[in-house]
Amino acid sequence: LLDDCVSARFLFAENIELLGRDAGLYEGDMRLTIDQALMIESGEVRGSIKTGKWPGAELAYEIDPSLSSQSRAMAVIQSAMREWEQKTCVRFKKRTTETAYVSFFKGSGCWSYVGRTGRKQQLSLASGCWYHGIVIHEIGHALGFYHEQSRPDRDQHVTILWENIREANKHNFKKYSTSIIDSHQTPYDYGSIMHYSSRAFSKNGKPTIAVANGATIGQRKGLSPIDAKQMSRRYFCQSGSNCNFDNGLCTGWTQSTSDQFDWRVYSGSTPSRGTGPSADHSGSGKYIYIETSHPRKANEKAIINFSGYSGGSACLAFYYHMYGDNVNQLNVYLGSSKVFAKAGNQGNEWKKAQVKNDKMDFFKTFQIVFEGIRGSGWQGDIAIDDFSLTVGSCEEGIPDPPGPTTPPPPGKFISNCGSKPSVRIVGGTVAAQNSWPWQAMMRTTSGFPFCGGSLIAPQWVASAAHCVRGKSPSSLMIRLGAHRRIGRVGTEQDFKVIKIISHASYHNPVRYSYDIALIKLEKPANLNKAVGLVCVPDGNSPAMPIDNLSKKCWITGWGRLASGGATPEKLMQASVPLVSNSRCLKGYPNMIHDSMLCAGLDKGGVDACQGDSGGPLVCQYNGRWFLEGATSWGHGCAGPMKYGVYAKVRYVKSWIDQIMKSN
């Protein structure tokens, strides 16, 4: 334990072992599970462990009363969390009912478990640990980081002076091979907050790590650019900062005090007629805007600032809405440089803006300024939404999205249905982003994805009846334009559900017969490159390629990769041949009905799996894609003669038309 009078910042940098003297600690400040200890002994540890990730890059936590009563400790914990959130896509959530979470407490020394253990895991912060950099370091362990000097390439950059290390601590300087450590393709980082100091575990006060180029190691000021990049790659996201405003202004956003009025966080339509958006960019959420009605005057300004970090080259992206007869101007500044300007009425639609910049610096906090200027009248509201700052280059060729599409009369052919980007498709792989634009994701109101669906009309999604059985419209959300199972890519549209209608013959005459349901969205989707309709086949559509191995159809979803296996991070796709019901009955005797369609290979190997329920089975005819099936059921995943079974959409086409027409 450290006395409060001792400089903990110095002790942590120079004598890491003093902060974690417990014999059960590894490398000075890491507590391992039994499985992790065995992995290390068997040579399977990773620099950033591939297991133990926090779902959705969201760490649930609680703060023990031993710390929550200490104002200094609370301030440091919050500042450390804020830096992780500002520089990476990691988010922190106060624990409610989560069984896996981090418990911050005042223990003996500074230490943490490594990665998510799947249950309550402690993170110890003795009074001598209440410093910004130390807490960032320990949270780094909880998120899955080991120490930087364990990397396989460390001998090219530093020299371990074994003669100065205590004999009992030499194991702490173990180096791992390239086959067992994951540094996420980043260069060696002298400035990492996870690096040992030069005198760690010294027996004589002399250096234990020598740096040839004179670089400083063991800093505990804050995250380095490479720390942030590694963590973002660990959690499959490149965002340095992002905010959709659904929970208000995010960390780093502040209202200016040198303007005449403030930006507002809002949802739904702005109060004034003939101006402003009717909803946020996703269709369900919040945005920020300037209200230009009385008492505002011409040329008054509302300024809001974002103070953040990036790692050199970065892409600033956001959506803007500028609609009304009196719209004046939106300006965006990076520091004192204007990087974006738009003036006048831009139409009643959200448009995407992207700005590439190569001069953002982690250690010199920069500021992005959004300036909205009031026009000559009250119809001049300006809104922004879905702000993101992404490491790397901007996406090429982003078109302005079209406005809301009026739904066509039900039952009529939708001329633009079944179109998708021309991309090369390989079976059983991650799909190209937005390459299946009708793919829908069914989610709980808390954001948990559990089933799929297909957009068949701007306000209607087809899915499986078993996905919605016993559920009310208010308990569901539909996400369109998604690519990631958890997290966002900027093309998503989220919708509330107002009606759920399952086929009246569901489960009759056999189990899972007529396993089809229609879900009506609160409002029509905005159809664009990322969100589109799939065609619904009818009696005039081409015949299905049954038992024709040369013509395959496609299944997509975020389902498990194997029976009982893990769920993928991104949308998956696979090609499957359609199978006649007579063949399918051989695998499922007395279980196949005319309202069902089977697909897959006799030998197995490709199939829709758990979590794909309700998702699309589509076939291409004459250049257009048609929805032939909604994923229903099967035994296991891709077993021999255990085909995937789907609700046959063309069999219930008249029911679909009747439901959409009468509702």
From TrEMBL:
Residues 241-396 form the MAM domain. Keywords: Disulfide bond, Glycoprotein, Hydrolase, Metal-binding, Metalloprotease, Protease, Serine protease, Signal, Zinc, Zymogen. Transmembrane segments: none annotated. One of its GO terms (cellular component) is membrane. The active site is at 138. Residues 44-238 form the Peptidase M12A domain. GO terms for molecular function: metalloendopeptidase activity; serine-type endopeptidase activity; zinc ion binding. Zn(2+) binds at residues 137, 141, 147. InterPro entries: Astacin-like_dom, ConA-like_dom_sf, MAM_dom, MetalloPept_cat_dom_sf, Peptidase_M12A, Peptidase_Metallo, Peptidase_S1_PA, Peptidase_S1_PA_chymotrypsin. PANTHER family: DISCOIDIN, CUB, EGF, LAMININ , AND ZINC METALLOPROTEASE DOMAIN CONTAINING, METALLOENDOPEPTIDASE. Belongs to the peptidase S1 family. This is Metalloendopeptidase. It comes from Pocillopora meandrina. The lineage of its organism: Eukaryota, Metazoa, Cnidaria, Anthozoa, Hexacorallia.
